[in-house]
Amino acid sequence: MSKITAAITAVGGYVPDYVLSNQILETMVDTNDEWITTRTGIKERRILKDTGKGTSYLAIQAAKDLLSKSNTNPEDIDMVIMATATPDMPVAATGVYVASEIGAVNAFSYDLVAACSSFLYGMSTAARYIESGKYKKVLLIGADKMSSIIDYEDRTTCIIFGDGGGAVLFEPNEEGFGVQDEILRSDGIGRQSLKIDAGGSILPATQETVANKQHFVFQDGKTVFKFAVSNMADVSEKILNRNNLTGEDVQWLVPHQANKRIIDATAKRMGLPEEKVMMNIHKYGNTTSATLPLCLNDYENQLRKGDNLVFASFGGGFTWGAIYLKWAYNSN
Ligand code: UT7
């Protein structure tokens, strides 16, 4: 019997309608379009404005988009992995609710929480379930309602993040397409540089934590940038070398969309021109767990069977890594 690899066979995505542009942010905090554009590459981001709707809403829309585009019967799905940093609530996994809402009644589900690397780590997890031979359809969703944890009076974070969701379906492949290799890393040194102080078991919510704005994201941007720019490039270069690939052999870099300067540095180290780099940071900002699947959703029509893709991410924790995958289908 030939070896089973885990191939992506369908993608879907969703972003909310409301557009938060740099021009609007200029009226909210002391910033300007020129600073945001040159330092990050972001022009606008999408925000889920409706009250009472959380990350599950974004995830459900993305999953439904995938199901309808690929004509997949949700009852055939074995497992739903929900990658997110902003679950609907601290207890009662978001993925469980999402699976029920999309009609994946035969699936089991759980959340995978690893900041901006949640989706990348989720790809690894999904691949192992498929490679085991026991599971035939694993739905991996990455979604985040970042606006629920952002202080819109803090110019150092509110210009960066946006809301969105993306989904991919993993299925077994016996022709060698799908996940080929991975390098996943983490380092607790990052804990103080990108975090939410309160609301967890160390500092549960009190009136004081709310008054002190300790339920919002804090980021020491400079430190995170330094670690991100070197580590994301390192693992991306290493995965090329380990698989005897050069930039010429790679059709697409699928990078986490945190900062265009970090993406450019990674592409440069891999020897990739701009045309081979998936980019949507200008229109969505940093959607955390949704950046990678939203890239696939935006570029799906340009992907060809056999293309070599390198996924790369870096996020809070710190968490980071790279995955080498062979694309399995032509979408048109
Ligand atoms: O996805 C998870 C992982 N996260 C990342 O990878 C993010 C990594 N970090 C970054 O992308 C960048 O560090 C930022 C975009 C967050 C910040 O860019 P920077 O070039 O590192 O800026 P900085 O923090 O060094 O700030 C430079 C200056 C400061 O002023 P002074 O001290 O030089 O007078 C800031 O106060 O820019 C100021 N500044 C701003 N000015 C206008 C900070 N935020 C803003 C702003 N508008 N929004």
Assigned CATH superfamily of the largest domain: Thiolase/Chalcone synthase
Mean pLDDT: 97
The share of residues in extended strands comes to 15-25%
The 3D shape can be described as globular
Protein described:
The chain has 332 residues and is α/β, with parallel strands linked by helices. The chain folds into 2 domains: 5-176, 3-Layer(aba) Sandwich (Peroxisomal Thiolase, Chain A, domain 1); 180-326, Peroxisomal Thiolase, Chain A, domain 1 (3-Layer(aba) Sandwich). It contains 11 helices and 13 strands. The strands form 4 sheets. The protein has a 5-stranded mixed β-sheet, with helices on both faces. A 4-stranded mixed β-sheet has the order 8-13-12-11, with helices on both faces. Strands 2-3 form a two-stranded antiparallel ribbon. β12 (308-315) and β13 form a beta hairpin. The radius of gyration is 19 Å and the shape is globular. The relative contact order is 0.19. The model has no long low-confidence stretch (mean pLDDT 97).
